[in-house]
# Entry
Amino acid sequence: MEQILNIIGGGMAGSEAAWQAAQMGVRVVIHEMRPKVATFAHRTGNLAEMVCSNSFRSDDSEQNAVGLLHWEMGAADGIIMQIARAHRLPAGGALAVDRDTFAEDVTARILAHPLICVSYEEITELPTEGHWIIATGPLTSGSLAASIRTATGADALAFFDAIAPIVYAESVDMSVAWMQSRYDKGDTEEEQTAYMNCPMTKAQYEAFIDALLTAEKTEFHEGETAGYFDGCLPIEVMAERGRETLRFGPMKPVGLTNPHNPLKPYAVVQLRRDNKLGTLYNIVGFQTKMKYGAQISVFKMIPGLQDASFARLGGIHRNTFINSPTLLDDQMRLKSRPNIRFAGQITGVEGYVESSAMGLLAGRMAAAEILGRDLPPPPADTAMGALITHITGGAEAKTFQPMNVNFGLFPPIDAKGGRRGRKDRYKAYTDRAKEAFTAWLS
Ligand SMILES: Cc1cc2nc3c(=O)[nH]c(=O)nc-3n(C[C@H](O)[C@H](O)[C@H](O)COP(=O)(O)OP(=O)(O)OC[C@H]3O[C@@H](n4cnc5c(N)ncnc54)[C@H](O)[C@@H]3O)c2cc1C
# Structure
């Protein structure tokens, strides 16, 4: 009997997954709740609606990891990229589109595909039988989210992200910062390199608090709950509660010895390793609603981070996502129920491009399984491979938060050849990725 692939959610990931599977010859049903059931952010009943910005970000496939992802999606016959390019608006190096004609065109192409049908309904329970991809995104409906939570455990599904900024390890000035776990906990090399510490004098701390209090902040989107949990208060809110709150919270200077200066620091900012490669570190407890420009100038005031490059900046959003590093295998299947795959933003990637890319992989993998073929994930030195490796095992499960694609997720390229300039290095990453992705596709 013909096996059908069911996809819940016809957003960026679900549309791309459906297209890929159907192009491989598999019949697909997309179950999409809009327009019958609305979300606070979507405005139409179209598939692949862009809920906020109309940009797919940088289109530079030589110097930018998102641009590289565009390239890989194009090489893999991705429908989102194909149609984005057809509806492109002038936007310098970015790929911006006319959001309405883009989504209308995706919808028309999907509906016209002979192997895809769209069923406009909300799915309220995690299905038990058949091949399924859950691609319901950051605004997964409440009943389905509750059912996922029952199947995976309460700790494995989050409704908000609380993203602390992430810096590239190589951009931290280690003549100021140092590696040490509080109270020297842990014997292994992995544990000893788990934290970097940046010391502050009293004057530096006071100036930092002033900057936090006056920095420009972002508001929650209309309809998003503005209440955040006490466990993940934005740092600027902690500072508002008292100038000393941070010094007795995430910036406490205890259990640490600065090897560069015998004077005890007044406060310490800690960075915690964010991936197994050790290329990325997040600033502990620094989730924030400051605007991106403000974050960069405020965080560069931290001694040791004056020249920091940020792999991603902080934020707090309404965002339903699962703890993929513990729940999913490298085929994006739920380990406890392998007939179900997850794709898109609910897997803990973030953004239109990353979500579509994870849809592309899930669609191909599900179709391959139905057709009785093996499809290994792309190698970790491609943009798609780096992302799927990160979410299904490369990220620290305990502190897992959504991630954009960035070169910090790729295996480092400079192991032998000595230091290169940034442009050269990024070009080397993208050249290596294109070669590996082309080989994977064939
Ligand atoms: C307020 C807001 C602003 C954002 N701004 C940006 C931005 O500026 N740039 C950017 O790159 N990303 C932004 N994002 C993230 C972006 O929306 C996602 O990265 C992307 O849309 C995720 O794709 P997806 O397919 O995983 O989810 P979506 O595109 O959201 O698609 C999920 C689909 O599932 C449907 N669905 C949900 N539950 C059910 C159910 N139970 N049954 C059936 N259907 C269901 C929804 O209606 C939706 O169509 C924003 C997100 C939000 C919430």
Q: What stands out?
A: The first helix runs from residue 12 to 23.
